[in-house]
Every structure is written in structure tokens, then in C-alpha cells.
DNA sequence: GGTGCCGGGGA
DNA sequence: TCCCCGGCACC
């Protein structure tokens, strides 16, 4: 299904639909700011890595702060767009550009519906029995969507990807949280147009969507800001849209070796590229390594993710028909040579019940 | 039954 | 990443 997101009438209609759906989930009367003390820490968070995450987050912000100043401070708040972008936009307004043009957490904007969600009321819980008041705040909405769409993907992954919009104009590294904002930026700053009526869609070619893994970023930022951005992350769209625009980037900031400057330092439309990392939990980015009958298993070539994919996707064949097992080598192995008594003399692999490294075939 | 080692899990 | 072990195929 394709929606013409540039059709103003359609936009308004869909925006209304969206609001109606949102209010159906959480009645407006029950929407209230959540005290920052309620912001949960993900259960799997390790305190030991916190300092590193802070450093990384600081690095991100430092890099961003070097971007040229381009935002028009008078820009009006973006209007939600239909479809998935509406979700992203409406719920991502807490990641907004400050008036200095730098991308940052805007903690002053408390009016947008993307501020931390309140605990759902009892009524809401009746409607969505999977929700419990004790659930993490940042999982409330995703949980409901999880329930409604029977998403089999573990909910932990749902909040990690944040879509941002980056200006691709040469020497402009503007990053905004909304497509309408970046369109306005391109239109007014680069194309020299002043009003929306001037728009012919050309600005679409000068920005790209980038997906940022917010897990680690927000971990670091959570200690730098009074409210945790993770509490207002966008409800996930699973599988996440591989963006409709012809240009998109996916940037995983989850690992320390992911070069943050990559996010910000490139740009010119012609240099566009897709950046993807092979992360085991990056659900929709699926690499499937099929194992054919008779293929010799090659452990070194199997990544963690492929292990998971294989586990999920490959139906075990009858043992008699497998034939995938590596033929037993002729050489004597550590076990045979040294015996169980001298197990400490075995090679490491043998001790770990792995393929012998000392007496290879 | 002994052996080799894959796959998975815990720390 | 290290270490261990269940489990399975091969001998």
C-alpha cells in the first residue's frame, strides 16, 4: 500500500486517525507526565559499562556540536505525517534540534505526546491484559502494539532504533528528528524557498533517513539529562520499514567500534551508502546461511547471528539423512594420546570438547 | 561404549 | 571471550 504523504488532505486524515488510535490506547485525560524517578533502568543494563557509554554519548554530542548552524529558530513544530513517519515524528519530538541547530535532547519540550508515558490505567489494562503497571514505562506502547500485532520479536529490541533525518546538502550535517522539519530546513536554507507552498518535493532528495540504535546512546544520555529519552521512544514498526525514500542509512551505535563520526561526518547525496551491522538482535536485518545436505560445517564462518537464524529457520533433517557431520579424523586426539588422567595436557580445544587443534587431520 | 566435536549456555 | 557440557554422529 502506498500513501501519498505529500497530499495534505491525506495527511490530515491520517493524522486524525492516528490521534484517535492513540487516544484509544491511552485516554487523553490519563496522559500525564511521569516523574523522572519512575524512569526504569532496563533489566539487562550493566552498571559496569555505564562510564563507557557516557563517554560514547559525550562523543556523539561533541561531534554533533561541531555541525554547522543551519536551523531556522522560527521553525514551527513539525506536523505529524501519516503512516510510520507519523509515529516516528510524533513520538520523536523529544529528540529535537535546539535553536543552536545542534541535535540534542530537548528536555524543555514537555508538551508533545511523546513525553514519558504514564502508567496505564486500570481501564487500559483491561483492554490490554498483557500490560502491567509495573512494566517499564518505555515498553508501554510497544507492549500494546506487540499485543495487537502479535509481534513475535522479543520486546527488548523494540525501542532501540530511532529514525532521524539528516540533511545531505554538502557541508551541512543537520540532523532533525522529523521529516517535515528536515524538509523545511532544506527548503528554506538550501533551496531558498520560504513557504510550504513552494514545495515541489525536491527537498526529498536532500535528506536521508538514518536509524540510530538508541540503546547505548540513551544509556549514556540518561545520566546527562533529567528525563530518559528511552521513555518516549517511538513505538516500533516491525519489521521496521526499510525506508520508503530511496536513500536511507542504518547506523548501529550499539557497539563501541561503531564509529560515531560516520553518522555525522559524511555527506553529499552522491556518497550515500547503507551502513548495516550484523547484530544478532537486529531482527529484520537477516542474514540466512543455509546449510545444504552434505555441506561440511565450518564453525569459524558461522556468526552468532547466523547461529540464531539457523536455529530458527532450519528444520532438522532426520539424523540418517543428515550427512553434514564432519567425518572423524584419522589422527589420534589429545584424549587418546594423553588419556583422561592427563587431561591438563590436552589442547584447549579438546578440553572444551571442540575440534582438536593439536592433532589436526 | 568410546570418541570427536557441534552447539549452546553460564560466567 | 573463556570455559564447560549436553548431545549426537561416527567408529
Automatic annotation (TrEMBL):
Stated name of the protein: Zinc finger protein 704 isoform X2
Subcellular location: Nucleus
Keywords of this entry: DNA-binding, Metal-binding, Nucleus, Transcription, Transcription regulation, Zinc, Zinc-finger
A biological process from GO: regulation of transcription by RNA polymerase II
Region listing for Disordered, in residue ranges: 29-52, 96-136
Naturally occurring in which organism (per UniProt): Notothenia coriiceps
InterPro entries hit by this protein: CR1/CR2-DNA-binding_regulator, Znf_C2H2_type
Top-level division of the source organism's lineage: Eukaryota
Gene Ontology CC annotation, any one: nucleus
SMART domains (alphabetical): c-clamp
Polar residues bias: start-end ranges: 110-125
